[in-house]
Design brief:
The complex is a heterodimer of chains A (102) and B (628). With 102 residues, chain A is mostly helical. With 628 residues, chain B is mainly α. Among the domains of chain B are: 261 residues, no CATH class; 74 residues, no CATH class. Chain B has a two-stranded antiparallel sheet. In chain B, helix 1 packs antiparallel against helix 2 and helix 14 crosses helix 17. Chain B starts with a helix and ends with a helix. Classes of the chains: A mainly alpha (102), B mainly alpha (628). Chains A and B meet through helix 1 of A and helix 25 of B.
Chain lengths: 102, 628
């Protein structure tokens, strides 16, 4: 087995996840939020694959493929929503979308 | 024999089903003819049943026929079965025969009334229920017929449902009858527990060894049902109010069928009653008391149908008296003659009421003798039969009941005295009614509202049954003239052996005294209401007691209705509103309140939600690490 050890992969994965989460939390543009979400998912994928390799079990890799598929579908819906918003000439700012406030 | 009995039973039910299924597709009059024909078929089937029964020897005339097992619980089985024996065939003949005449009369009476088909549906169903009651092969089927009869009488009394009085009367009849049904059901529960059967024969056999207390309770239950259905003291108050129904209904319910059910059940269940002699005495005593009470109240009534209704109560009192002392055949014989002359009186009164635009108040009538000569003759025949004047039907049956009472010891003597007093009262109130309605000059009301019956279909449909019944009321009693010839007693006695047998001298005494008292009553009525030579003392307090029917309605109002009403109102104010309504309201309000508070968390800011999720997950992760 070549390449770095498990902690190095996990560090990168954790950093990717944290960067993504920060992006989701502090950015207002739905486009950027979606992007950040993808980064979070990729962080999770990296962790899955790293563990898979560490344990020697391929399930993690297959699961990572499934996550990619989910991420792709999510992007389709998310981008669709954003396009719909843009068509109605709404400002692309999630803080203004408060119709569901209790 | 039993096949004919089944036909007799189901023919009216088939008519009822056809009328309902046909609905508006069959003409209104056709519904009437259909119902009449169906009851006529019942009568024919009953005759066939009788004929095949008469070919057998007198000890071999009871037969039970079961269609299927209707109800099974462990070792307890109840079948849908009929018992065909002399008593039930006798009742089938009376019910379907007189019923057929009355349903035929209805074709004329309710002609052109709205919802005529509904009337004929009810009346067919009623005849079916009554036949089910008298043919029932076990006590449960009997109770079923018993309840159905009560239900149909509710429908029929309240037939003119746009009049509040009719609805109130219908409810009253139903509730009083339901009370009787309940006591009867309680009696049956005891029987089921003690004997594990409800079929007549086994019940009679297995109840022989039961204790006196059990038998008293069982028979009291049955007697309660009988008293309610037959409008005897103390459950009599519904019958006069039931006169709100159409007149043929009054004739059917209050003459031929429903009210005689109580007498029938005492005769049918006589082996049970004989095991509880005290209850038998009670039945006879209540019958005698009802004779007097109804006779007195009838003296002051002003509604022609109510006078006849009270006379019905009084006459059924005689039947209860007879059934109570064990003169079963005499009770059934009087039941038959009474069905003839009482149906006649009601139907003849119906012709008058019909011709006077529905007026039932006797004070507005008068002088109708020459306007309705044939109805007058029919009514007079019915009245004479009611007073038990010789050669008319009532004479043969009523006096033999009183003769039997003479044979029943000192208690029988008291009953005899009450019955004789009742005979005198019968003469007075019957002929008071006849003199007021038919004698004198036509009143202004009569001249204004009279429209003579026509010789069209309705007129003829009403006239024929009255004519037939007039013949029966005049000559129908000759079928049995104790002690000279007694076919009815000979027919009934093998099934219901009498406990008392009047001797020839007792028959003679009862007849002579009864006829003399009846004539005296007629004479008094003649002096007071025809010649006006005698005026009655005012006696206001007594009159008020009679006009208020001995305050039974008021008594029940104070004893049962008012306390129940008070309790219900108190429960409504102090339990229902604060506790039940309040708790429901509170749950709703509190939930809404909590919801509005929680909804403050829902800010609509996406980032807050994400932060909450992130913090939550982090906390869980921390917890996990710590615990690990």
């Amino acid at each position: 087995m070549t390449g770095p050890n498990l902690p190095a992969y996990l560090l990168i994965a954790g950093m990717l996840f944290a960067i993504g989460a920060l992006g989701v939390l502090i950015r207002r543009s739905p486009l950027i939020i979606l992007l950040s979400l993808e980064i979070m998912l990729n962080g999770a994928n990296l962790a899955l694959i790293a563990f898979s390799r560490h344990v020697g079990n391929h399930s993690g890799q297959i699961f990572a493929l499934a996550v990619m598929a989910v991420a792709a579908s999510e992007v389709v819906i998310g981008l669709g929503l954003i396009v719909a918003m843009a068509r109605r000439r709404l400002v692309l700012d999630v803080d203004l979308l408060t119709t569901l406030r209790g | 024999m039993t096949a004919a009995a089944w036909v007799c039973l189901f023919s009216p039910l088939a008519a009822a089903a056809l009328i309902v299924a046909g609905g508006m597709r069959i003409p209104a009059r056709a519904a009437g003819f259909l119902a009449t024909a169906a009851v006529g078929v019942s009568f024919a089937a009953a005759i066939v049943s009788l004929a095949s029964m008469l070919t057998r020897s007198s000890g071999d005339r009871s037969e039970t026929s079961t269609l299927w097992t209707w109800l099974s619980a462990g070792t307890f089985h109840v079948g849908l079965n009929v018992l065909v024996d002399p008593v039930s065939v006798f009742m089938m003949l009376v019910v379907s025969g007189v019923g057929c005449l009355i349903v035929g009369y209805s074709i004329g009476y309710v002609d052109a009334v709205a919802e005529e088909r509904r009337y004929f549906f009810y009346i067919s169903l009623f005849v079916f229920s009554m036949l089910l009651l008298v043919e029932a092969g076990n006590l449960l089927i009997l109770l079923g017929g018993w309840g159905l009869v009560g239900l149909c009488s509710y429908f029929l009394i309240g037939f003119e449902h746009e009049r509040p009085a009719a609805i109130a009367a219908a409810k009253k009849a139903f509730i009083m009858n339901a009370f009787g049904d309940a006591t009867m059901a309680l009696g049956l529960f005891i029987l089921v527990q003690k004997t594990n059967t409800l079929d007549w024969g086994p019940v009679f056999q297995r109840s022989q060894g039961l204790s006196q207390t059990v038998m008293v309770l069982v028979t009291l239950g049955l007697l309660g049902g009988a008293l309610a259905k037959s409008a005897q003291l103390p459950l009599q108050t519904w019958l006069p109010d039931a006169m709100e129904g159409p007149t043929p209904v009054s004739a059917l319910i209050h003459a031929a069928t429903m009210v005689t059910a109580g007498v029938y059940v005492i005769v049918r269940a006589h082996p049970l009653f004989e095991l509880a002699p005290k209850v038998q005495d009670l039945a006879a005593g209540l019958g005698a008391a009802t004779i007097l009470l109804a006779g007195l109240v009838a003296l002051v009534q002003t509604d022609i149908k109510r006078v006849i209704a009270y006379s019905t109560m009084s006459q059924i009192g005689y039947m209860f008296l007879a059934a109570g002392i064990g003169a079963y055949a005499n009770a059934l014989f009087h039941l038959m003659t009474h069905a003839f002359f009482k149906a006649l009186l009601f139907l003849a009164a119906g012709i008058i009421i019909h011709a006077l635009a529905g007026e039932q108040d006797m004070r507005k009538m008068g002088g109708l003798r020459h306007l309705f000569p044939r109805t007058y003759i029919a009514f007079l025949a019915g009245g004479l039969a009611l007073v038990a004047i010789p050669t008319f039907a009532g004479f043969f049956s009523k006096d033999s009941i009183l003769a039997a009472a003479l044979d029943a010891g000192w208690y029988g003597d008291i009953l005899f005295a009450a019955g004789m007093l009742g005979a005198f009262l019968t003469g007075v109130y019957t002929f008071r009614m006849i003199f007021i309605v038919f004698e004198g000059e036509p009143s202004p009301f009569v001249r204004e509202h009279l429209h003579q019956p026509q010789r069209d279909l309705p007129g003829v449909a009403m006239a024929i049954p009255v004519a037939v019944l007039a013949v029966l009321a005049t000559f129908g009693g000759w079928i049995q003239f104790a002690p000279f010839w007694t076919p009815i007693s000979d027919f009934i006695n093998p099934v219901a052996a009498p406990l008392v047998e009047a001797s020839n001298s007792e028959e003679a005494i009862a007849s002579v005294v009864g006829v003399l008292l009846g004539l005296a009553g007629i004479g008094l009525a003649w002096l007071v209401y025809k010649r006006h030579t005698v005026t009655l003392p005012a006696a206001r307090p007594w009159r008020a007691v009679l006009e208020h029917k001995f305050y039974f309605d008021e008594l029940y109002n104070y004893v049962f209705y008012k306390p129940a009403d008070l309790v219900a109102r108190a429960l409504g104010t102090y339990v229902e509103r604060p506790l039940i309504e309040g708790s429901v309201d509170e749950v709703g309000e509190e939930t809404a309140d909590l919801g509005s508070r929680v909804s403050a968390l829902q800010t609509g800011f996406l980032r807050l939600y994400v932060l909450a999720i992130a913090v939550g997950v982090s906390l869980f992760a921390l917890l996990f690490v710590i615990v690990k």
